[in-house]
Design brief:
Elements (H helix, E strand, L loop, with lengths): L16 E7 L12 E8 L2 E5 L2 E5 L4 E4 L5 E5 L7 E8 L18 H7 L3 E3 L3 H10 L5 H16 L3 E3 L11 H17 L6 H7 L4 H12 L3 H19 L5 H7 L5 H12 L3 H8 L1
Antiparallel strand pairs: 1-7, 2-5, 2-7, 3-4, 3-6, 5-8, 8-9
């Protein structure tokens, strides 16, 4: 399978695709596709990269990925022996170029606008899950009706964006492979020191060229991105290992000094690691 762009397999003239993923891990390559994706995470957890931003996903999360938005769900296989996700794929023009432009559909405008940066649903999740759980027994017409119900619920729900910047040009296959290699290396080696020379070599580029390349496509430096990966993994350790000290978590996530860890954690999460732990427990 090509990394970027990624083709959603579908029969000719089919406007809406319903897909169930069941495997030991989700597809773990950075990719983008023309279709808008609405997914329910049924089982499993891990890291989610959408465009320029890394966050986490977990069971019962509902996520929306916009058209041509690069993303990857990296499965944390310590959380489950099986990963399950239900997804709907469609285009804004799937039911005709003017369908979602009708005055009757004006309530969907925010949905399509917000999907451009990806979003996660925070409220009305139980109602949306009920619609997803009907899909595997529905015929094609019933699924279209369920999609409209799901979009309506999302449009009136509380959501949060999954990214702050999306590179507007379509990625080439070479671009996709290069970014995928960089992202995977950072996510696998985040706890180790990573030099600029090392990561530029991974992209098969010189240091200065790599810095310009990465900043243009993500709107941040590679080391800003690496710090965000380390902080997200620190949050996972705080949530899953209450007996680990903050200094141990700092060390395990690749921070050389706990003062730097505390400062960066507060910059990104808005509170110190200790306060984050106190809030969780």
């Amino acid at each position: 399978m090509k990394v970027l762009p990624f083709k959603i397999p579908k029969p000719k003239n089919e406007a809406l695709i319903y897909q169930e993923d069941r495997d030991r891990a989700f597809y773990g390559e950075l990719h983008q596709h023309q279709e808008i994706q609405i997914s329910l995470i049924v089982k499993g957890a891990g890291s989610l990269i959408v465009a320029d931003t890394i966050s986490e996903y977990k069971e019962n999360d509902i996520i929306i990925i916009g058209s041509h938005v690069p993303h990857v769900l990296k499965s944390d296989q310590s959380t489950s022996d099986e990963f399950i996700m239900y997804s709907l794929f469609f285009n804004k023009t799937s039911f005709g170029k003017q369908f979602f432009e009708l005055s009757d559909m004006s309530g969907t405008l925010d949905f399509f606008k917000d999907s451009e940066y990806g979003m996660k649903v925070l409220s009305k999740k139980q109602k949306i899950r009920r619609q997803f759980n009907k899909l595997n027994k529905q015929n094609k017409l019933e699924r279209v009706a369920s999609l409209l119900k799901i979009i309506n619920l999302i449009s009136t729900a509380t959501t949060t964006p999954l990214s702050s910047f999306v590179y507007k040009k379509k990625f080439t296959n070479d671009d996709g492979k290069r970014l995928n290699d960089v992202f995977k290396y950072a996510m696998e080696k985040y706890f180790e020191p990573i030099t600029l020379e090392e990561i530029a070599d991974k992209a098969n580029m010189g240091k200065n060229s790599f810095c310009r390349y990465f900043k243009k496509r993500t709107n941040k430096t590679f080391f800003q991105f690496l710090i965000e990966i380390r902080i997200e993994n620190a949050c996972k350790l705080i949530n899953s290992n209450p007996d680990l000290s903050i200094s141990e978590i700092s060390e395990q996530c690749g921070f050389g000094a706990i003062a730097n860890f505390n400062r960066k954690f507060k910059e990104i999460k808005g509170l110190t690691p200790s306060d984050y732990r106190a809030k969780r427990y």
